[in-house]
Write a structure and sequence with these properties.
The structure holds two protein chains of two kinds. Chain A has four helices and 17 strands. Chain A is mainly beta. Chain A has one domain. Chain B is an alpha/beta fold. Helix content of chain B is about 35%, strand content about 30%. Chain B starts with a strand and ends with a helix. Classes of the chains: A mainly beta, B alpha/beta.
Chain lengths: ~350, ~250
C-alpha cells in the first residue's frame, strides 16, 4: 500500500489534485470489467501490448520491438516514483522507425503501477498510442530520451469508467528532435497528467497538450512543464478543458526558458469551456523566462458556448443538443488536431464525440 | 402562408412589438420598412424563435401550424429561413459541415433521406457558383474572416441550399456594394420567386427593392404596422421619410 506517501493538497503543485478519488480508486476491490482488451486497439499494424492491472498479458499482445524488463528508474516525482519494477521499453537504433506501438491498460480495481522507457537514437521515429480502460488506480511513469533528430508521437486516451489514472512523462529532447504528446480524457475517472519535458538540444521541439472532458462530479487535471535548456527550441502547450455538470478541469502549464536558451519560441494556449454554471475550470499558465531574445505567447480563457452561434445553428435546422456538440467538438478539435496520424486523430475525435453525446 | 395576428413581444420586459398584424400569401414578396427601433429585427427574431424574445400575446400561424409552438430548428424544418442582419462567425466549424448538418437535420425531421457527402458538395458548389462565391469559401469556418458582403452572400448560398418555403431576410442589403446587391437580389428572385414560396424583406432602404420587386410594402413604427401599400409606398418613403409617411 502506497497511499501513505501521497502528496498533500497543501503543496501548490497538488492544490487541485483529486487525491480523495485516487485513494478511493486504490481501495476498490478487483472485479471483472467485462471489457475485451482487443476492442481497445485501433486497426493499425504494429506491436500491441496489453497490461491488465499493470501486468503484461501475453494472450492479447504481440510486443514486436518492445521489450519487457525490470526498470528501476530514478524519479523524484511523488507518484512517478511509485512506478518501479517490471515495465516496457521501446529502444530504436539510429535511423530506424517502427509501426505504431499500441498499449492497452486495463484495470480491474485496486492500484497498479507501471514504468516505461522510450529511447530513440539519432533520427529514430516512433508512434506510441495508449488507451486506459476499467477501474481502480492506474499509475504510470515514462522516461523518454530522444537523440538528435529523433521523433516521438505519443497519443494517450483515458477511457476508464471509474477510478483514477495518473501519468508522469519525463523527457530529454535532443538537437532538432521532436516530442509530441496529446492526451484525451474522455472517460469517467479522475486523472492527473504530469509532465516535464526538457529541450536539451539546440532546436528541440516539445509539445504536450490535449483535451480533458469531465461530467458528473469528475475531476481531471494536467500539471505540465517544458524546460528550454538550449537555444532555438520550440514548445507548444495547447490544452482544452470542457466541464459539464458539477465537474472540474484544472490546467496548469509552465514554460521555463534558461538564460542561454535564446531564440526560444514558446506558445501556450489554455482554454476552458463551461457547459453548466455549476462546473469549474481552473487555469494556471506560467512563464519563467531568463533569456532576453525569446518569443513566448500565452493565452488563457474560460467561457461558455456562444449563444448567438447556437441560435444561428438552430435557425438553420440543427437541434440544440447537436448544435452544442458541434460547437464543443470545434472547441476541442484545436487540441486533437495536433495528432499527426490521421487514423489515430479520427479515433480520438470519435471518442470525444461519444463523450459529447453522453454529456450534452 | 404566414398569418401574424395582434403579436406582442418584449425583450427584458420592454415591449417592442405592440399588436402587429400581417398576412403573407404564397407567391408574394412583402417588404417591411421602418425607422430604427421600430421593431423590424425583433419581428425577424421572434419569428425565428430566438431565446430572450418573449411573446406576450397574439398568434403566428405558418402553413397551418402554430409557429410559436415550434423550437427554432423545427421552424427551419417546417420551411422557415431567417437571413441574419449580422451573420454569426463559428470558428472551427466549416461551412460545408455546418450546411450539410443543417440540411440533413431538416431532411431527417421531414422523414427524407439525408444527402451523402458527394451529393451535398455538388449542391453546395452549384449554389456558390450562382451567387459568385468562391467554392473555396465553403471549406472555411462559417463566416470567419468574411467581409460584410461575403457574409451576406453566404446567407444567400445557405438559403439556396436549404431551399425554404418562406424567407425572412433581415437587412440583407446592408454592407453590400452595388454589384453584390445585384447578385444577392438575383439570388433572392431565383431561389424564392415561386408560386408556393414567399418572402418577408426587412429593409431600411429602397435600393434592394429595385432588384426584388415587392408585391406589398408595410411601414412598421413603434411595434405596429402603420401603413400598407404597393411598391409605390417604398418610393414615397424614400422621398418623404418615415416621419412624414408614418404620421
Amino acid at each position: 500500500m502506497t497511499l501513505a506517501t501521497l502528496p498533500s493538497p497543501r503543496d501548490e503543485a497538488w492544490r487541485w489534485a483529486d487525491l480523495d478519488s485516487l485513494r478511493t480508486a486504490a481501495q476498490t476491490p478487483q472485479q471483472s470489467t467485462g471489457i475485451d482488451p482487443a476492442s481497445l486497439f485501433l486497426d493499425l499494424p504494429g506491436p500491441r501490448l496489453t497490461f491488465i492491472d499493470g501486468a503484461f498479458e501475453p494472450a492479447h499482445s504481440r510486443p514486436g520491438a518492445v521489450q519487457l524488463t525490470r526498470l528501476d528508474m530514478n524519479a523524484s516525482h511523488p507518484l512517478g516514483a511509485l512506478a518501479q519494477g517490471e515495465g516496457w521499453v521501446l529502444k530504436l537504433d539510429a535511423r530506424t522507425a517502427t509501426d505504431p506501438v499500441q498499449i492497452v491498460h486495463l484495470a480491474t480495481g485496486g492500484e497498479n503501477h507501471l514504468p516505461a522507457r522510450i529511447d530513440l537514437a539519432e533520427d529514430g521515429v516512433a508512434t506510441v498510442i495508449e488507451s486506459y480502460a476499467g477501474r481502480g488506480w492506474s499509475n504510470r511513469l515514462l522516461h523518454a530520451s530522444l537523440g538528435k533528430g529523433a521523433r516521438l508521437m505519443r497519443a494517450v486516451r483515458l477511457l476508464q469508467d471509474q477510478g483514477f489514472v495518473s501519468i508522469r512523462d519525463e523527457a530529454s529532447i535532443g538537437e532538432a528532435a521532436s516530442y509530441v504528446a496529446t492526451f484525451l480524457g474522455a472517460g469517467q475517472s479522475g486523472s492527473r497528467i504530469d509532465g516535464f519535458l526538457r529541450c536539451d538540444g539546440v532546436g528541440a521541439f516539445a509539445e504536450m497538450g490535449g483535451a480533458l472532458l469531465t461530467r458528473g462530479e469528475q475531476r481531471q487535471e494536467c500539471a505540465v512543464a517544458v524546460h528550454h535548456a538550449a537555444p532555438e527550441g520550440t514548445s507548444r502547450q495547447v490544452w482544452r478543458a470542457v466541464a459539464a455538470d458539477a465537474s472540474t478541469v484544472s490546467l496548469a502549464a509552465r514554460a521555463e526558458v534558461a538564460r542561454h536558451a535564446q531564440k526560444t519560441d514558446g506558445e501556450q494556449s489554455l482554454r476552458g469551456l463551461l457547459l453548466k454554471r455549476t462546473s469549474t475550470v481552473n487555469l494556471k499558465p506560467e512563464l519563467e523566462i531568463f533569456a532576453d531574445d525569446v518569443k513566448c505567447a500565452h493565452g488563457a480563457t474560460v467561457g461558455e458556448l456562444d449563444r448567438r452561434a447556437l441560435f444561428y445553428m438552430q435557425s438553420r435546422g440543427i437541434p440544440e443538443a447537436q448544435a452544442k456538440a458541434l460547437l464543443t467538438h470545434a472547441f476541442v478539435a484545436d487540441a486533437l488536431d495536433r495528432i499527426g496520424d490521421e487514423a489515430v486523430g479520427e479515433a480520438f475525435k470519435a471518442d470525444a464525440d461519444r463523450w459529447l453525446e453522453a454529456a450534452l | 402562408m404566414l398569418q401574424i395576428n395582434d403579436l406582442h413581444a418584449e425583450i427584458d420586459g420592454k415591449p417592442i412589438l405592440k399588436g402587429l398584424t400581417l398576412t403573407v400569401n404564397a407567391g408574394e414578396v412583402h417588404a417591411i420598412m421602418g425607422p430604427n427601433g421600430a421593431g423590424k429585427s425583433t419581428l425577424g427574431y421572434v419569428l425565428g424563435g430566438r431565446p430572450g424574445y418573449e411573446v406576450t400575446g397574439g398568434s403566428v400561424t405558418f402553413a397551418g401550424q402554430d409557429l410559436l409552438d415550434l423550437a427554432p430548428h423545427e421552424r427551419a424544418a417546417a420551411g422557415l429561413f431567417l437571413g441574419f442582419q449580422y451573420p454569426v462567425e463559428i470558428p472551427g466549424v466549416s461551412n460545408v459541415q455546418f450546411l450539410r448538418e443543417s440540411l440533413n437535420s431538416q431532411r431527417r425531421a421531414r422523414d427524407e433521406a439525408p444527402l451523402s457527402g458527394a451529393e451535398f458538395l455538388k449542391l453546395a458548389r452549384a449554389q456558390a457558383a450562382t451567387l459568385e462565391m468562391d467554392a473555396e469559401m465553403l471549406k472555411r469556418p462559417v463566416n470567419v474572416g468574411f467581409s460584410g458582403g461575403e457574409k451576406k452572400r453566404n446567407e444567400m448560398v445557405q438559403m439556396g441550399i436549404l431551399n425554404p418555403r418562406f424567407a425572412i431576410l433581415d437587412e440583407t442589403d446592408s454592407g453590400l456594394d452595388i454589384d453584390a446587391l445585384r447578385i444577392v437580389g438575383d439570388g433572392i428572385n431565383r431561389i424564392m420567386r415561386a408560386p408556393d414560396k414567399a418572402v418577408l424583406l426587412i429593409t431600411h432602404y429602397q435600393r434592394l427593392l429595385d432588384y426584388v420587386k415587392p408585391d406589398v410594402v408595410h411601414v412598421l413604427a413603434d411595434g405596429r404596422i402603420v401603413k400598407t401599400g404597393g411598391p409605390e409606398l417604398a418610393l414615397e418613403l424614400e422621398r418623404e421619410g418615415y416621419a412624414q409617411v408614418a404620421a
